[in-house]
Amino acid sequence: MNEELINQIVSRILSEPAFQALLQGNTTGTLENKVIKPDGIVLLNYVSDFERVLKAVKLSYGADYTLSILPSDQVLVAKPTLPEGMSWITPQDALSKTSWQQIIIPTCSPNTLAKAALGIRDNPINEIIGRGISLGISTLLVTEYLGFTAHTPKAYRELYDAYQQTIQSFGVRVCATLKEGCTTVTETGQSNRTSFYEQTVAVSEQSAPVREEISFDKKFLGDKQVYAIPEGSIVLVKRGTVISPLARDTLKSRKIELRQEMEEGRQ
Question: Fewer C-beta within 10 Å: the chain N or C terminus?
């Protein structure tokens, strides 16, 4: 290679805009500066309002983490559309990755909560949770979709309250929703959050309407009579009253509760 050819090559390299920008310490417009975000994984159980949940996750964590979504089998069938910036990940890839910095369970089910508290790791979602706890990875669990109501037996609710307190003692943060502040465990091991049961009962006492009680004295309750009863009320019938099958369906559809009226003198 002669000297003239070498000089031509060097001259061309030096004249490149990208090289000139580097020499001047300015890479704007020539080299894209990408901020590498830490990896976060979202463990997604099935719910009916995927769009709202995924938007909330992105709003809360999308700016700080590169979010991968690990779906349950039911979610995999539904395959909802992901917001921009999120991507699906297979169980194999999720379990082989070791760089997770944040674990998010926005739609925790009772099954997932119980298994996490008991250390059961029999599916990819609970395996990731177990690994996160073992490795001290920041983990957030949202209880919004546990499905308990004011009618759930107190003892059953308290069972899951105990599971919640157990996972908190493992260092897992617990939120009622993604928008609310999370609970922590104090040095005495007590949660600073009201229990599931106490929250539901308090809301029920404040907002539940008073249901009207109506006594039905006739011997036969048919569909036509049911439509004359206010929706959402309680109907008291005497022992031996005949209720047609169609009337029972209508009672259910109109949210009318059927109760047997206690006979006078009986307790």
Answer: C
Q: Which two tokens stand for residue 153?
A: 């037996």
For residue 172, what is the enclosing H or E element?
A: none
**For 178-212, how does the pLDDT look when each residue is reduced to its tens digit (9 = 90+)?**
875 455 443 444 445 555 555 554 544 444 456 77
SS3 222: coil
CB 258 within 8 A of CB 241: no
Domain 39-206 bears CATH identifier 3.40.50.1950: yes
DSSP 84-121: TT-EE--HHHHHH---EEEEEETT--HHHHHHHHHT--
pLDDT value at residue 185: 45
Contact 102, 140 (CB under 8 A): yes
Structural element, H or E, at residue 261: none
User: Which residues are CB-neighbours of 18 under 8 A, at least 6 positions away?
Assistant: 30, 31
Q: What is the pTM of this model?
A: 0.59
